[in-house]
Amino acid sequence: MKTTYVITFILILFTNIVYPNWIPRKENNKSANICDKLDEYVNSPYSEEQFLKYSDIKACYELTSYNKTKAIQVIETVKEYFKGFYALLDQAKENPNPGFALRPIDLISELDLVLKNNYSYEYQFIYDVASLIEEMRDGHTKLRSDVYYKYTFDQGLSMYSVIKKDGTQQIKVFNDVKEPSNVDCQVIDIDDRPAIDVIIEFARDHTFFSRDLSARFNSALASLAFGNGDFSIAGQLFTYRDQLPKTPSISYTLNCNGKISKITREWQVPIENVQYESPYISGTSVGNATLIFDAFIARFYILQDFGVVLISTEDIINSSWDLEYHFLSNIVAGFKLFADKGIKKIILDLSNNGGGNIFIGNYINKLLFPNIQNFPLDYKVNDISIPFIKEISRIKKGIGNIFHYKSFLSIKTKASFDIVNDFIGNNIYTRGGVQVRYTSKAFHNDTTNYVGTFKLPKPPKFPWTEKDIVILTNGLCLSTCAIITQRLAEINVPTIAVGGFPNTRFSFAQYAVGDVSSSAEIQSLLELKNINSSLVSKLSLPSNLTLQFTLAEAYSIKNPNEVMDYAYRPADYQLYYDERSARDPSCLWIQAAEYFGK
Ligand SMILES: *[C@@H]1O[C@H](CO)[C@@H](O)[C@H](O)[C@H]1NC(C)=O
Ligand SMILES: *[C@@H]1O[C@H](CO)[C@@H](O)[C@H](O)[C@H]1NC(C)=O
Ligand SMILES: *[C@@H]1O[C@H](CO)[C@@H](O)[C@H](O)[C@H]1NC(C)=O
Ligand SMILES: *[C@@H]1O[C@H](CO)[C@@H](O)[C@H](O)[C@H]1NC(C)=O
Ligand SMILES: *[C@@H]1O[C@H](CO)[C@@H](O)[C@H](O)[C@H]1NC(C)=O
Ligand SMILES: *[C@@H]1O[C@H](CO)[C@@H](O)[C@H](O)[C@H]1NC(C)=O
Ligand SMILES: *[C@@H]1O[C@H](CO)[C@@H](O)[C@H](O)[C@H]1NC(C)=O
Ligand SMILES: *[C@@H]1O[C@H](CO)[C@@H](O)[C@H](O)[C@H]1NC(C)=O
Fold first, then answer.
1. pTM for this one?
2. pLDDT (tens digit, 9 = 90+) per residue, 499-532?
3. Looking at the domain assignment, is residue 343 inside a domain?
4. Within-domain flag for 508
5. Dist. CA 415 → ligand 6 center (Å)
6. For residue 185, is it within any domain?
7. Residue minimizing CA distance to atom 5 of ligand 7
8. pLDDT (tens digit, 9 = 90+) per residue, 543-578?
9. Is residue 387 included in any domain, yes or no?
10. Per the UniProt record, which residue ranges are transmembrane (predicted)?
């Protein structure tokens, strides 16, 4: 009955693809429809296809027409989930901090409005609902369809942004698999409009990995990410999309050393990917930085006289306890090696870290600052959520589950709640102009997650204080990554964000929340004994749809009434990418080292 607390928020790492010529396939099965054929291309070991065509996928999606009866059921169910569990539903109606690119949204009424539209196909409806939910710009909260998000559409090129010495900003080609000679050409126009405007508009309206526009702008473009034991291209959401793009191609006007040319790229879906290789990175070094310890999800480098720790994720493959123990022990070992070598200053580079297990974040914080407190949290309390809290709290072995009262410590007593009703509490807050009930504020009891598994490795006492560490991110430090960086920032560890717009400090992290859940997780709990059958039918989504949502909101320790998700926390300092540093993070580390103790 133990569920892991994994905040599954993985920033997909994108790689590039080989494009040989399209090899037409023999059409030999008249009864197979276009969707079956696409599956066969992808899955058959004998398939000669290297990529799928935009028009074939569009034809596949258009096999299913819009059915208003089904649409109404989807909307009604999604509304029930949000009303029952979505901790931020009412706060989203308030005017957000002006630092965020966000409008106030009454999600429940706007979901009803979607039904007023006329759609020809089911996918158009699903995309509209998904896009509306994404307007919350809450990376934890999204609707996904197994069917309509199955493929990723690629342009075969990626772009990035540099700030020139005179302060002007340019979009350039980061990597081009089809025509490598385009690399570092300036992108002047996209579909005949200024490239920078097109990217900003796309970041504002079609991405949701931050509430801050600068971080979203970074996510629309390519950046280098460490992950899975290697470096690759992350982000590039403008040229690498999971929704069927509206048009079959995009045109780019390029300036390559004064020569202007225009190229057009069709959307294609690659079947196999190959890794991007930066010329400045090898297995044992990044620029002049030397790798001294590889902890798989983290790497430890030494550059000049300081240390650099890259942490790529807090997610453990297959939620394996063995791996988790292994990774945590290795992270301790890496820091110990730094201490043994007399390293006095450390840069934590958590760029493109998409989060993972909350307990790993809490562990890393305590590793560096043993007396640090976790962010407290609470859940929404209502007719839909109470049965889950009560029912799971009756299960002895349920301790550790996100609905079990014994998984938490009261912030008042710092001890476990005596009875479930103490956890449920009676706390009413005014949010978005309405009174909303939440549980008593609580901390995760970190040890409940590990009961019956392993004893957490006990770290030595490390010499570093907040004056010896700086945090560097590209703004895409999400979920559990934000639990690390935003908590450390609250105890005065300096923060630096790289990228964004000239002279515009921006959020270094986003979505430090308490817990995340999904319709798939709730579905498995609907089988519990005393869950009312009317609740079961209210919460049943078609199995090809999954709704994920923020279940628990976290509160600042510094400003105890501030909900972290809506706290605008710009970095203390800003750095920019140039042609070299975008491909060689050691250049950024040298610049970041200026800010130790500032
Ligand atoms: C033709 O396609 C259909 C639908 O995918 C499949 O059920 C059938 O087995 C295929 N027939 C052959 C001969 O491959
Ligand atoms: C629409 O969906 C409903 C419910 O699943 C079904 O009964 C009805 O036949 C469908 N309508 C059409 C036109 O397919
Ligand atoms: C929706 O489409 C149907 C069929 O094309 C049409 O009869 C109806 O008037 C449309 N409704 C609206 C609100 O546009
Ligand atoms: C690496 O070190 C060499 C020798 O000290 C120096 O010339 C070079 O500029 C350094 N490279 C970077 C990217 O800092
Ligand atoms: C994770 O699970 C999958 C499927 O069960 C398996 O194929 C894979 O090898 C596992 N990975 C690791 C690292 O254990
Ligand atoms: C946290 O949970 C563990 C395991 O259930 C329990 O032994 C421990 O007393 C709890 N911690 C506190 C401070 O109550
Ligand atoms: C289930 O809930 C409904 C509506 O909330 C209520 O009318 C009904 O009595 C409940 N049934 C049981 C068995 O508790
Ligand atoms: C998804 O599942 C629902 C319910 O089973 C079904 O009505 C719908 O057509 C499915 N969509 C696709 C594209 O398979």
1. 0.94
2. 999 999 999 999 998 899 999 999 999 998 889 9
3. yes
4. yes
5. 8
6. no
7. 534
8. 999 999 999 999 999 999 999 999 999 999 999 999
9. yes
10. none
